[in-house]
Amino acid sequence: MSLYFERRQVVVPGDLLAEGNYRNGNGTFKELGKIFASVIGLAVVKGNVIHVVPLEGVYIPKAGDEVIGKIVDVSLTTWQVDIKSPYFGVLHASNAVDLPFNPLRTNIRRYFDLGDTIFAEVISFDRTRDPVLTTKGKGLGKLRGGKLVEVFPTKIPRLIGRKGSMISMIKRETGCKVVVGQNGMIWISGRTSEDEELVVSAIRKIEREAHTSGLTDRIRELIKESGRKNDEN
Amino acid sequence: MTRINQNSYERLIDENEIRIDGRKLDELRPINIEVGILTNAYGSALLHHGKNKILAAVFGPRELHPRHLALPDRALVRCEYRMTTFSVEERKSPAPSRREIELSKVIRESLEPAIFTHLYPRTSVDVFIEVLQADGGTRCDGITAASTALADAGVPLRDLVVACAVGKVEGHILLDLDDIEDKKGEADMPIAILPRNKEVTLLQMDGQLSREEFQRALDLAIKGCEQIHEMQKEALRKKYSEIQEEVLEELNEFSEKEENQD
Predict the structure, then answer these.
(1) Chain A within 8 Å of B237 (Cβ-Cβ)?
(2) Three-state SS for B107?
(3) CB contact burial B4-25 (16+ within 10 A = b; e otherwise)
(4) Cα distance from A218 to chain B (closest Cα, Å)?
(5) B1 in a domain, yes or no?
(6) A10 at the B interface (CB within 8 A)?
(7) Which residues, numbered 19 to 38 in chain A, qualify as contacts with chain B under a Cβ-Cβ cut-off of 8 Å?
(8) Rg (alpha carbons) of chain A, rounded to whole number
(9) A66-143 is a CATH 2.40.50.140 domain
(10) Is B157 an 8 Å CB contact of chain A?
(11) Quick check: B126 contacting A, CB < 8 Å?
(12) Structural domain tally of chain B?
């Protein structure tokens, strides 16, 4: 049993992380009893599981994730949704429309049309089939107006913060509505476009400095400072 | 002037075992790797190696087009090695040559064993290698740059892939041949390895080596690859250490402000 990295050290693919009675978690793999990093990221040990928190990478859907997507195709009973992932999301009418409907009579474009932005939950994804989405649920559905920002999905946990501390602080301090998709898409709607811009700049700062500590305080400072500037003007 | 001199020398290696560019027999050309220099690509790397300049960009895993190429159980790795028209002295025709198509294939085959392709079925990982300036050993540098870019893109890898050339010139076994040594020498052998297990993913040879020479050349190449591997890892880590320093500076500014307020 031995570890070969320091807490939160940046590791690169092929780095030896641990030996002995450890299990390999995300971003790692096991070979001949040794655990190695498979992605560039920060090495963490939780109990006896070794993880690498990735610093780069694409969004891979997971059942239960909430994502923001754009409708890119409409057929008789389904929508194809671009969720900024290698796989398109599939939204069946039965997972979006409450009333039973007849596709011969009703055009589902009445609900969501091409180019609409939706907030949806991933119901299932198993590698062999495209991820299935639903918009039935609290807060899910079409997002009207507002601004869309895209960040690396690997930065999303940082944006949300521990038990949502970061994101709720941003919402409170700016008074904007912010919806965060696990896929790296963020929707912002505020009273003024200045408020929205402020959230965007806070998000960009988080994206740049995601792997450093004390981030929440600095973001709060950033928001308060520009709030003061706006008041002076 | 230098150009004329380079082509008109009589010997590539002098009596002190020093090569025409001043290197020792087992010495690499200077290498510098920059990571993440393209914003549109998922990952990228720019490799300077002697006079070589090679740019690698990785896109993926992403949706595969055309769809019928999709593999049900793993990602499709595609690779394109290209030389710019101005990369060599005489203008290279922009049409893909036989050589470029072949190198694209061997580079793909040398990278693929390192990638966990089964994690992303039905997708593609596209690797683009652009040779901006060529001076021998561009396929090796292409592989090194591409694997660095793959790591930068966050593609899960078993190991970084490193490549290096060895050869025989005027009876000596040399590391890291440049263009003249490659053309005038007796043998040239590019090798790519996964450095952790020393697995060989590319081994080609032009010319002839004896059994004993081959073994010596292979050992030398692996030593060269290990040196390059260290630089590769350094370059990848540096991308994040620089950001951390930037943040430290900001923190300093903050604390100074607070002091002034008091």
Answers:
(1) yes
(2) helix
(3) eeeeeeeebbeeeeebbeebee
(4) 9
(5) no
(6) yes
(7) 27, 29, 36, 38
(8) 21
(9) yes
(10) yes
(11) no
(12) 1
CATH fold for the domain made of A2-54: OB fold (Dihydrolipoamide Acetyltransferase, E2P) (2.40.50)
Is some CB atom of chain A closer than 8 A to the CB atom of B227?
no
Q: Tell me, yes or no, whether B260 lies in a domain.
A: no
- Predicted confidence (pLDDT) at residue B5 exceeds the cutoff of 70: no
Find, in chain A, the residue whose alpha carbon is nearest to that of B150: A39
The whole-angstrom separation of Cα B127 and Cα B132 is 16
- B chain contacts of residue A29, beta-carbon cutoff 8 Å: 116, 156, 158
The per-residue pLDDT for range A82-131, each reduced to its tens digit, is 999 999 999 999 999 888 878 888 889 999 999 999 999 999 998 888 99
| Other beta carbons less than 10 A from residue B72's beta carbon | 8
Residue at B137 is within a domain: yes
* Residues in B touching A212 (Cβ below 8 Å): 244, 247
Confidence at residue A140, expressed as pLDDT on a 0 to 100 scale: 95
Whether B154 and B194 have beta carbons less than 8 Å apart is answered as no
ipTM: 0.86
CATH of the domain at B120: 3.30.230.70
CATH, domain range A147-232 = 3.30.1370.10
